[in-house]
């Protein structure tokens, strides 16, 4: 019902603008509709640790996109929808990833609506990135996000960099895998059972700010977020029950990258303060690319990052004192074939997660992806990661673009 | 004896003068070509890239290129991919520098990430095509040393040696057309072993604002792999009056959204 209304609104806006556009060439309206259909198969080859968990997960997803812009592209409405059908009832979900109006003029830009914003420079963990809630059932790497309602104002200066101001009126909870799903805890967490520290609940009015600039080879970002955190805080009582809630946090973030010849030196760091918890975390590392090594476009990049999290074992992502190593291979062929392989290993135990992601285009409108995540020698004492120790999986997906 | 010394001095002197003038004349031509194209301020153009492999199979890419002319430093450019659809919205922002490495940012629309990337990879292929990154970057005079080779009617042939050791070429042999505002007609690229690697020919020239020659077709043939890439430009828009604000990381994200 809600989506129907939105579509009507979009169509009306479009009609109005196209009528208006006949007056002036500058007001030429450009619109564009696109859609991706994806079929996916995930296979967990180890016996499930918990009852009711399945091994085979065939799934379908659809991603429609619509963009309309006028005023030479300085004004636009952008929409990205998402729906997935999966064996796990919680992974069957839909979302409006983006639906916002944007206006840009000279040295400022304003966006109103549901939008996605990315902050950060490192590869193995995205500490600083806090504007959007993670779509935790969608991918293991946490790179898929839920649309966040916001007003974003950007002010661009010549000498002092770019200033971003965010007003975030509504918080969205994270979804966890359901009964049949893998990558979950023994107790199925229903997102509605998680409470808020703020009495305003999801309607707490949150604020964020970021300054971004570059000086020659140095790119820098400094940000601050004040509001309900995106990560729930888990506490365990004496009887072993999990109590989880979303705390009100102040988080300051720093991003640094030095781009020197084929080296990228990267650092991301946060300090998060809440009533129940204070901690510091960082990721630091480098990326070096051997480019065009065969004279035919083959690039091989090597990546290394160190991850530290003061929360120790209660870090939700279990990356408290770890090393990430990896390699990015890009063939730069007409099919854009690329492979990313890597591993994250705990420096205190032998717990290691290996990963592989490969993708390639077929024809002009098909793509295929292969992903593998292998949990190796996971320490049974790791409070969070140990629950996933039998959840190594292979994933294959094929997408068609319309 | 005196005569001999005189002859040696004369020969040496002549060669010195002619050697110097070949280099000077080459530089002079490159500067004249740069000057002839000065004052376009900004442009927007749609581009269709057709990649052809040695068996004749083709694949296409659609891009939009925005360029901002700068005189004190190299030009700024913003390239947006519209096709293939899986990479739609992928965009790059490049600040060319007359001296030193260019600054470059990449926007990945699927995760909305802006990433500063190394411009170190000059010799690698641009999106699987026969064009290397260095073939498509802004052609600043300072990036080569020059040697005039020959004059054929209004055609001037100049050898250009890349200053940057990371270039994939030992030299390029460039043909300018003096009577058509020093526009480029052809470039032959010689690889690091000094073997002929590629030939780029420019055609379908159109004169804009009575001053700026733009080739609407570029054809790059790789003689070693027998692959080809054809670039077809649509009409250039020189009236957009783009400014510095249209070439920022904010504009990069806006262009790719």
Uncertain runs of chain B with pLDDT below 50, 5 residues or more? none
Q: Which overall shape of chain B is indicated by the principal axes computed on the Cα atoms?
A: globular
The greatest interface here is: A-B, 50 and 40 residues
The number of E-state strands of chain B comes to 13
State the assembly state of the protein chains: heterodimer
Largest sheet descriptor of chain B: 13 strands, antiparallel
The span between the termini of chain A is 25 Å
| Helical residue percent band of chain A | under 10%
Radius of gyration of chain B: 20 Å
Shape of chain A: globular
**Helices and strands of chain B, in N-to-C order?**
HEEEEEEHEEEEEEEH
Strand content of chain A: over 45%
Helical/strand content category of chain A: mainly beta
Number of strands of chain A: 21
Helicity range of chain B: 10-25%
* Distance, first to last CA of chain B: 79 Å
Mean pLDDT of chain B: 89
Helical run tally of chain A: 1
Q: Give start-end ranges of low-pLDDT stretches of chain A.
A: 15-23
Order of helices and strands of chain A: HEEEEEEEEEEEEEEEEEEEEE
List keywords for this structure.
heterodimer; A: mainly beta; 18-stranded antiparallel barrel; 3-stranded mixed sheet; 21 strands; B: 257 residues; alpha+beta; 13 strands
Word description of this protein:
The complex is a heterodimer of chains A (402) and B (257). Chain A is mainly β and 402 residues long. Helix content of chain A is 5%, strand content 52%. Chain A has one helix and 21 strands. In chain A, strand 4 and strand 5 form a beta hairpin. Chain A starts with a helix and ends with a strand. About 2% of the residues of chain A have low confidence. Chain B is of the alpha+beta class and 257 residues long. Chain B has three helices and 13 strands. The N and C termini of chain B lie far apart (79 Å). The interface between A and B is large, with 50 and 40 residues.
């Amino acid at each position: 019902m809600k989506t129907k209304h939105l579509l009507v609104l979009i169509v009306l806006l479009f009609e109005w603008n196209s009528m208006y556009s006949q007056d002036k060439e500058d007001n030429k309206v450009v619109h564009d509709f696109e859609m991706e259909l994806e079929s996916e198969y995930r296979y967990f080859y180890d016996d499930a640790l918990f009852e009711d968990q399945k091994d085979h997960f065939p799934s379908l997803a659809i991603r429609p996109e619509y963009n309309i812009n006028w005023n030479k592209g300085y004004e636009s409405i952008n929409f990205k929808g998402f729906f997935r059908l999966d064996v796990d009832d919680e992974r069957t979900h839909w979302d409006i990833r983006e639906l916002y109006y944007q206006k840009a003029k000279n040295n400022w830009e304003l966006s109103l609506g549901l939008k996605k914003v990315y902050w950060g420079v490192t590869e193995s963990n995205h500490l600083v990135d806090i504007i959007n809630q993670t779509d935790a059932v969608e991918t293991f790497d946490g790179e898929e996000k839920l649309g966040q309602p916001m007003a974003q104002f950007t002010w661009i200066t010549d000498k002092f960099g770019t200033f971003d101001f965010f007003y975030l009126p509504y918080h969205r909870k994270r979804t966890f895998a359901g009964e049949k799903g893998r990558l979950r805890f023994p107790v199925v967490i229903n997102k509605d059972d998680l409470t808020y520290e703020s009495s305003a609940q999801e309607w707490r009015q949150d604020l964020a700010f970021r300054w971004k600039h570059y000086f020659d080879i140095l790119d820098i970002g400094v940000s601050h977020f004040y509001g309900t955190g995106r990560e729930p805080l888990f506490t365990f009582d004496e009887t072993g029950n999990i109590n989880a809630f979303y705390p009100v946090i102040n988080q300051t973030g720093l991003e640094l990258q030095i781009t020197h010849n084929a080296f990228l030196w990267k650092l991301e760091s946060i300090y998060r303060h809440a009533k129940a918890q204070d901690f510091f975390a960082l990721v630091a590392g480098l990326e070096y690319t051997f480019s065009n090594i065969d004279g035919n476009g083959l690039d091989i990049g090597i990546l290394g990052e160190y991850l530290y999290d003061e929360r120790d074992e209660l870090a939700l992502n279990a990356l408290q004192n770890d090393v990430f190593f990896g390699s990015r291979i890009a063939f730069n062929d007409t099919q854009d074939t690329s492979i990313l392989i890597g591993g994250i290993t705990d420096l205190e135990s032998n717990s290691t997660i290996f990963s592989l992601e490969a993708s390639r285009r077929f024809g002009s409108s098909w793509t295929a992806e292969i992903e593998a995540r292998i949990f190796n020698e996971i320490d049974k004492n790791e409070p969070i990661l140990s629950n996933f120790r039998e959840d190594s999986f292979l994933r294959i997906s094929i997408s068609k673009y319309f | 004896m005196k005569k001999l010394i005189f002859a040696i001095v004369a020969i040496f002197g002549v060669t010195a003068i002619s050697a110097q003038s070949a280099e000077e004349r080459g530089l002079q031509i490159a500067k004249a070509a740069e000057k002839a194209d000065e004052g376009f301020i900004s442009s927007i153009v749609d581009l269709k890239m057709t990649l052809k492999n040695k068996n004749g199979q083709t694949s296409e890419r659609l891009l939009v290129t925005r360029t901002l002319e700068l005189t004190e430093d190299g030009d700024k450019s913003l390239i947006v991919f519209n096709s293939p659809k899986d990479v739609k919205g992928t965009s790059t922002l490049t600040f060319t520098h007359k001296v030193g490495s260019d600054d470059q940012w990449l926007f990945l629309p699927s995760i909305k990430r802006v990433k500063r990337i190394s411009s170190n990879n000059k010799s690698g292929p641009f999106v699987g095509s026969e064009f290397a990154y260095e073939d498509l970057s802004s052609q600043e005079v300072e990036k080569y040393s020059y040697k005039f080779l020959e004059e054929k009617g209004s055609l001037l042939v100049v050898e250009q040696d890349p200053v940057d050791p990371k270039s994939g070429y030992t030299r390029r042999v460039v043909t300018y057309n003096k009577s058509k505002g020093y526009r480029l007609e052809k470039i032959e690229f010689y690889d690091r072993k000094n073997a002929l690697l590629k030939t780029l020919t420019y055609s379908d020239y159109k004169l804009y604002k009575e001053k700026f020659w733009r080739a609407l077709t570029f054809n790059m043939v790789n003689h070693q792999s027998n692959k080809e890439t054809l670039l077809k430009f649509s009409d250039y828009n020189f009236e957009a009056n783009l400014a510095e604000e249209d070439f920022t990381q904010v504009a990069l994200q806006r262009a790719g959204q």
